[in-house]
Amino acid sequence: MSDALPSPPELGTPLPVEAAPEVLAFLARRRSASAMTLAAPAPSETQVAELIRLAARVPDHGKLAPWRFIVLAGEAKAAFAESLDHLAAERGDSAAAAKLGKLKTPPLAIAVIASPKPGAIPEWEQLLSAGAACTTLTYAALAMGYGANWITDWYAYDARACALLGLSSSEKVAGFILIGTPREPPLERERPDPAALTARSPG
């Protein structure tokens, strides 16, 4: 679905700032696909590696890489979903079990884990960087021609669910990026009025 990406530039390589109207056109029409419409095929292993490489280029104050990625596909994804089914049953929460459909249906999920590092860079900035990684990963999958959706749900916040993913006590799930081939094109949804959300500094 996508041509090979350019090789990563070497450290210190000049990277000219150039207009990219095709990127602006993409952003003007970007639309997440419903998770329940995502089916096989998913990105190949090579494409997944490319997506993660792109996501790792987000702004990162202090060059801390305060995030990591967990790829959930195939049997590993099915086993994770089954474990979540058991957790939902133990909670006696049928609504929680029903919400797992968004995770089970797409063939690929990539969990972006916020993993802040101690030091001078505020944790808030590191969490924002993890959110940027979610955004870039979603946009990159869409730009490859796949459908993608960034979700969180109860299993992003449940301590036992996080333990299944091997998270430490200082880590959080920033999002599950669900990826596949949409069975139907997503419809445009209502968008906010940018003018109503914009102010200019007085004076």
Structure description:
This protein is an alpha+beta fold and about 200 residues long. It has one domain: 3-Layer(aba) Sandwich (NADH Oxidase). About 40% of the residues lie in helices and about 15% in strands. Strands 1, 2, 3, 4 and 5 form a five-stranded antiparallel β-sheet that branches. Helix 2 packs across helix 6. The mean pLDDT is about 95.
List keywords for this structure.
8 helices; alpha+beta; 203 residues; NADH Oxidase
Layout: helices, strands, pairs:
Layout: H1 21-29, E1 38-39, H2 45-55, E2 67-73, H3 74-91, H4 94-98, H5 101-104, E3 108-114, H6 123-143, E4 147-151, H7 154-157, H8 159-164, E5 172-182
Antiparallel strand pairs: 1-5, 2-3, 3-5, 4-5
Helix pairs in contact: 2-6
Helix content: 25-40%
CATH architecture: 3-Layer(aba) Sandwich
Q: Approximately how much beta-strand content do the residues carry?
A: 15-25%
Mean pLDDT: 96
The overall number of domains is 1
Would you kindly provide a brief summary of this structure?
This protein has 203 residues and is an alpha+beta fold. 38% of the residues lie in helices and 16% in strands. It has one domain (32-183): NADH Oxidase (3-Layer(aba) Sandwich).
